[in-house]
Amino acid sequence: MGFLWYLTIRIGGALATIAAGSFLIFLIMHLAPGDPALAVLGESATTETIAAYRAEHGLDEPVLVQFVIWAKMVLQGDLGKSIALAGKFPISDLLVTRLPNTIFIGLYGLVIALVISLIAGTAAALRQGKLVDTVATGVAVLGISMPDFWFSYVLILFFALSLDWFPSYGFTPPGESLIGAFHSGFLPALAIAAPMAGVFARILRASLVETARREYVTAARSYGFAAPFVFIHYVFRNAIIPFVTVLGLQVRYLLGGVVIIERVFGIAGMGSLIVDGAFARDYPVVQACALTFLAIVLSVNLIVDIVCALLDPRRTR
Amino acid sequence: MWEESATSAAFCMAMVEKAAQVDKNTPLLSVRELLVRFKLGDGLAAALSRGPSYLKAVDEVSFDVGRGEVLGLVGESGSGKTTIGKAILRLYEPQSGSIVVNGVDITRMGDRALKHYRRDLQMVFQDPLSSLNPRHTVRTSLRTPLLLHKICPSSEVEQRIDEALTRAGLSPVFKPRYPHELSGGQLQRVAIARALTMSPGLVVADEPVSKLDVSVRAQILNLFKDLQAKFGISIIFITHDLRVARYLCHRIGVMYFGKLVEIASVEELFTAPKHPYTKALLGTLGAEGENLDGAQVAGEAFNPAADTTGCRYYARCPMRVDHCKTAHPPTETIKPGHDIACYEWRRS
Asked: According to the model, what pLDDT value does residue B20 have?
């Protein structure tokens, strides 16, 4: 019963968070200064056209009533239509084209960060105090402290403009060409990966060093187990638990980073959608994007918690 | 190698036989002039300075442990007791000296050859929670070393685990449990059972009761006493608590900053201590029975990093004279079984 009970509680908690979060998102959008009618209609707006626009999009109702209407639609799977974009696109159509790009870049960056940090963190821990450790730790600090937009421009300058290995702007959606997506997405993914790789590598190094001091590791060595066996089964598998936890927490920074990186590299993803939507006071679009981000963060945290529970018997028993 | 049957009686017989197999007069363990040093500072800082400096954690220490004997090693924290224990298990590489087990020198033995001797040398650690892998159940923790050393046919592994747990005073129902589900005392029994599964000749117990509740301490101490009495296991019992050492040990060695300053039988050490440090330690055992933690021994401590030439106890010693500054005193045997490293012991 231990694990299933744990799972039920965690999923229930995630659903409650989504409910509360969506209300908060809605409230913040409507409390923020600015009027979608003015943003869309511009200087030429008259009192009549503004009133008509508001009535058309239900903006004349009280905020709570608007929320109930919106929440009902969302529960039925309808995210509504854009109120600012000329074509009045259904938001679900926008998400279908934008979301895969963002998820692709995000996952791509995450994988790069994982590969770099696993290698660098392990190498630093195994050669603690040696040159490898000093270099890896130093580079990690550099990765964490560099602003991502600045690092993006450095990457563009070097790898796109000087060496011409990668495009400096634009992104081929993975649906069009997977190879193209990997190629054109490499620089943005690397820009997102840099700070994460730094954080991950440091956490992994610290966790490995700390775990290696435990007496069960000494005990395992005293039985004469081979060093790689002790490292994998006694050190690494225990050290990975805090690493996975931090990984889950970093996903929201990943999404925050994507917003900026998409701008810099001109990628049509969720980040540019939410920024454009916010400027145009396009409530439904911003709400839908924020809700999607919330759902992603919560599902990732849920997955991380489940993985941790499977790795660590202390969580469920 | 003799084969062991997994039945309980044969198991006991085998242990008794094993103890009788080698000549009674050869000690089970013989440590001679053991030197273990640690590099202070590493990496860039050490490379830029004139060279690495070393800390002699264990400085030319010699002693024997007989069959079925319990040797206590006492001293303040940092005196090198634990380092000796770990060096005997070859968890630290000794700089010089020798470690001889059952007449076989294992000091420089390679990993493969050493593996054969490792089952004979088991360790029980200070922190019971940290000494078991949190991801492993009690069963897994006990089974893994058994399988590695192929101690018994795999069909008999479960039975052997049950026996070891029972001997350590635990019911086999604990087998599917994880370490965090057990109390400190139960965990220490699991750690002892893990050592017992290997039928060791020598168990190095590193402060095995210091992190336990006082109420549980006596139980675990009695368990060690029983195991020694029933199976003739030799024990090196590392402790900072002289009363514990007195209760359990046959002989006690007193350590001071890497040096073994006095070693004698319990009766001799408590009735006729010769080294001024031993006397100071015994003096701290007041009515409340303080132990050696903290600086109850008055005077300035020795600085182990600065490699001074004189007696390590010089700074604190009430009996110091000028020639104590020239070199650390050599160890002399003042009567059979009573060794001391002090120039001025006759004055006491």
From this structure: 47
Q: Of B236, B229, B271, whose CA–CA distance to B252 is shortest?
A: B236
Locate B298 and state its tokens.
């008055």
B145 in reach of chain A (CB within 8 A): yes
CA distance B21 to chain A (A): 23
Domain membership flag for residue B337: yes
Cβ–Cβ below 8 Å for B123 and A214: no
Tell whether A133 lies on the interface with B, counting CB pairs under 8 A.
yes
Residue A220 reports pLDDT greater than 70: yes
What pLDDT does residue B7 have?
Answer: 45
> Are residues B243 and B193 in contact, defined by beta-carbon separation less than 8 angstroms?
no
Query: Which chain B residue lies closest to A234 (C-alpha atoms)?
Result: B133
Q: Are A312 and B135 inside 8 Å of each other by CB?
A: yes
Residue A301 tokens read as: 């945290």
Closest to A60 measured CA to CA, from A37, A26, A39, A89? A37
pLDDT for A69-104, tens place per residue?
888 888 888 877 777 765 677 888 888 888 899 989
Residue A6 lies in a domain: yes
Q: Which of A163-167, B249-253, B337-341 has the lowest mean pLDDT?
A: A163-167
Counting the structural domains of chain B, the total is 1
Per the CB < 8 Å rule, is B91 touching A312? no
Rounded to an integer, what distance in angstroms lies between the CA atom of residue B208 and that of residue B205? 6
In a domain, B331, yes or no: yes
- Domain range for B273: 269-347
Say which of B123, B133, B141 has its CB closest to residue A222.
Answer: B123
B319 part of a folded domain:
yes
* A274 and A241 fall within a common domain: yes
